[in-house]
Design brief:
about 375 residues
């Protein structure tokens, strides 16, 4: 098969594929056999009706139209895989009525929207902030405040720590709280690091999100959301009430999330391309082995034949890119609890200053009136 791919504007490619006559003839032969098995032809056993009989009963044009459709449907996934194309929508085959002909090559064309290839504003290592290791005094204090509020206590006492909370002493309780904070950080750190990297990464995307990709991602998010909602047995109205939002706000949130996720994907694709990161055939096969074990080869063939193998390759490349980004990120450890306390103290001081200024102004106004 000869394939020609040309880039067009608006993130599309035009594809022209020529299938050899030998393959064309095999599709015609298979279609005749399928029709002979599918329908009853008087005087002939199932599957034994000759071509002229099939043509007279069903019409030669119907046979050729079916053979043409089957050939294109089977060939399209091959093109996607061979040319390493990454569809961002459905192919447009136009309105051609041309059909395959016995003994002749067959050429068909289509236009395909593909994922855009953008460049980031920078490929330097990301600088991110993460919670400092261990448990700080501010973090322990914040956790203790939450516990006091939950148990409606004004202050942490030895009696409360022992009798209500079941610790040996107040110091023992603080040590256990500190250990709990450290354990939570250790469990959450990989996800926190990835999220921090993603937020910084999409800041480097100076490109519009293609409308088609955003709509496709939004549809996927909605489908996943309502599937989970159905499994949980909750209603959409109860979810909105719990979140304190209305349906319009929900739609806006999903739309914003979809755009951010598309930006993330575009950014990871750009990073991978810049760093020369690829997914090999061995990488792809390994994914199926992990997922399906003994049935890996059959499952991989199914995905390849249906033109979906690029989805696995795409996610592998993005996963490798994310790992590369995280490994090279420059991390600054921050005591976020202390930062929040300082911000709250500054806010209160500012409010206090404003109150003093207002009071002074009011006094001046009263004196002026007198």
């Amino acid at each position: 098969m000869q394939i020609t791919v040309n880039s067009q504007k608006d993130n599309k490619v035009s594809v022209s594929a020529t299938v050899e006559a030998k393959t064309v003839d095999s599709y015609i032969a298979k279609t005749y056999k399928d029709f002979a098995r599918r329908y009853n032809f008087p005087g002939f056993r199932k599957g034994k009706a000759p071509r002229p009989v099939v043509d007279n009963a069903l019409g030669r044009e119907a046979v050729m139209a079916t053979a043409t459709e089957n050939l294109i449907n089977d060939t399209y996934p091959q093109i996607i895989e061979e040319e390493k194309l990454y569809p961002a929508g459905q192919p447009d085959f136009g309105k051609s009525d041309e059909m395959i002909v016995q003994g002749s090559d067959f050429t068909f064309d289509f236009t395909l929207p593909v994922r855009p290839e953008i460049e980031l504003t920078s490929y330097d290592a990301l600088e991110i902030e993460l919670p400092q290791s261990g448990a700080s005094e501010a973090e322990i204090e914040e956790q203790m405040k939450q516990l006091l509020a939950h148990y409606q206590q004004e202050e942490a006492t030895e009696q409360w720590a022992k009798e209500t909370m079941g610790f040996e002493s107040l110091d023992d309780m603080k040590k256990q709280v500190a250990q709990s904070i450290e354990d939570q950080k250790e469990a959450m750190l990989p996800r926190l690091k990835e999220n921090a990297c993603v937020l910084k990464l999409i800041e480097r995307v100076d490109a519009d999100v293609p409308e088609g990709m955003a709509e496709q991602k939004e549809s996927q998010l909605l489908q996943d959301f309502f599937t989970q909602l159905q499994r949980s047995g909750a209603s959409f109205d109860s979810y909105l009430m719990q979140q304190g939002i209305d349906s319009d706000q929900f739609k806006e949130d999903v739309k914003r999330q979809a755009e951010d996720e598309v930006k993330r994907d575009m950014a990871l694709d750009a990073w991978a391309r810049h760093a020369g990161i690829e997914a090999t055939d061995e990488d792809v096969s390994h994914e199926f082995e992990v997922a399906a074990g003994e049935g890996a080869k059959d499952l991989e063939k199914e995905w390849r034949d249906s033109g979906r193998l690029y989805l696995i390759r795409e996610e592998l490349v993005r996963s490798k890119a994310m790992e590369n980004i995280m490994d090279g990120a420059k991390v600054v450890e921050v005591d976020f609890a202390k930062r929040a306390q300082e911000a709250e103290a500054a806010k209160k001081e500012s409010e206090k200053s404003d109150e003093s200024a207002n009071a002074e102004a009011q006094t001046t106004d009263e004196e002026s009136t007198e």
